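Appendix B: complex inputs.
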Amino acid sequence: MESSMNTRRVISVIVLNESSVLARITALFAGRGYNIESLTVAPIPESDMSHITIATNGSARVMEQITKQLHKLIPIYKVIEHEEMVEKEMVLIKFPIEEHLSDIGALCSAYNGGIVNVGKEMIIAMVADEPKRIKHFIEAAGRYNPCEIVRGGVVAIER
Amino acid sequence: MQMSGAQMVCEAITAEGVTTVFGYPGGAIMHVYDEVYKQNGFKHILNRHEQASVHAADGYARATGDVGVAMVTSGPGFTNAVTGLATAYMDSIPLVVISGQVPSQLIGTDGFQEIDAVGISRPCTKHNFLVRSLEELPRVLKEAFYIARSGRPGPVLVDIPKDITVDIGEFVYPDSVDIPTYKPTYKGNKRQIEKAVEAIKKAKKPLLYLGGGIVLSNASDLVRALAKKTQIPAVETLMARGVLGAKNPLLLGMLGMHGNYSSNMAMSETDLVISLGARFDDRVTGKLSEFAKYADIIHVDIDAANIGKLVDVDYPIVGDITEVVEAMLPQLDGIDTDRFEAWRNILARYDELHPQSYVDSDEVIKPQWAIERIGELIGEDAIITSDVGQHQMWAAQHYPFDRPRQWINSGGLGTMGFGFPAALGAKMAFPDKTVINITGDGSILMNMQELVTAAEYKIPVINLILNNHFLGMVRQWQTFFYEKRYAETDLSFQPNWKALAEACGGIGYDVTTKDEFDAAVKDAIAQDKVCFMNVIVNRFEDVLPMVPSGGALFNMMLPQKVEEPKETK
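Resulting structure:
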């Protein structure tokens, strides 16, 4: 039964840095009915490649298809399905200035983050941690009336 | 050498050895056409619709195994070509389609005849390019041909903005291609091949499941040798007709929704499926949980994504059929062929029990008879193309295909209107062969404008219209599954076929009897003109056997038994 169970997976895709390569990937997911939970892209330093991290979910057969179908795209160099990895996600949250600066600061430091900007009307906090802990952090931050939350998507690296 | 982008396109096509290009000019591709006018490296055929241009290039590619080339303009020119691209994509046919695009500076401004061609064609091409600069054009053209024909073949679109076709620059056509991200696997894993061979030796009821990949890999002779050496019975998919040859005693027939009884039963009872270049399409497998239920599966495919996509595979081998079968053959020396004799006998009994048959008639022409008759009259010498529907299935069931690339049809996408333009492409490649498009009164109208093309260029292809005054396949489903409510399938209103063909510069034949049929075929072959042969056939004839959609392969609706042995076909 394991093969039909939906599991969350993180895939790294190394691609040639050329126009429309991201469109090819997202079109593949859309066209074949695969899920994208989050997706991040950035160039790999000192190369003509980019690193794309995709968090997705599906059965074992779907996961295998995702990897194989991605690999078929011409500008894709490598597809890595992570087993053992370090996974991090970043989140930025904006709070009204009326909230307690020190409480928010303490909460952020509990999640490896901190306050990154304080203006006349708002406080901006940043946290980078495992996706599950980010979820908890956002829940905890709820009591300070956050006015905006921006999540960065998952990045991962093989252990 | 200094030249314009337009000239580079023509030079590249010539350098790739393409002899015939199909296309249709328009604003954005005019500079290229200006160079087409001046060159003599290839012949250009002006189809009367861009869809037909791509199908014709596709027919040329399927008949020869080389890359087919079509040229279209931007906007509607390109969108008309999309069905052609999708047809080729689903059947893995190597094509390069050149489309014009609005000038670079106009892209994204909703310019006249602008459409996002690479965006639209992404899911129906193997790869596509929007050319960004003149400097990259020679490399892009080289890569396009390389990608189209290598690995699992497929269509490639090259979209060229008009300004780039005007610009002049240095042209050096690359000798080779190096795409670091694209390295197809040709050689199968040695260990996996050994394991597969062991499984073949141990099997009691093995079955060769032959697919279109064998044709694409030009591996028919090797596969024939494999069958001969092992004496393992074989079934062919729609796309593999001709691989083993109709006369081969090991060939059971075609399997699937309209497969014959022994083929479908063989697949249901086998203990080892040896799948070569087939992809377990739903029209082949029927209900997946019942498909080859008792079998281990060897799956050889050049596309890793096909392996394990629909069925669990015990012996996956990623590689080119030619390479893999070449590696297998010596390892099968001394295989005990008697081992499979009991299995062959069982299957022979199945075939005796329910042969691929139909009840012939003297009052009305049966479509199956017409196809068998063509086989008797021309047989091996013909190239048969087809459209999509009942006639396609009857052709696949009843024509005696003797060699690969003799049978050209749209299997994956099922594109009505494919057959006529594809026949033009095949005839351009093989002018000495008789090319017959087996079609229906529905399909033929979907690209009938090609009568004009065929007449203008004197491409004498025969359109054998099996006319039942219905969209027959849909009508058949309505009979079986929709309580005979014939919603929009009655084609009783018909053109005057003979007059239509003649109006466009061709010949028409109206055929209602067997004698007229023979006379019309003989006359049509002798003529150097395109023709419409309107053959009135039995109206309510069904394609049988039939596995209802989603049903198990062994649950077939079977044809009526032929009573008198002399009428058995």
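The two ends of chain B are 63 Å apart (CA to CA).
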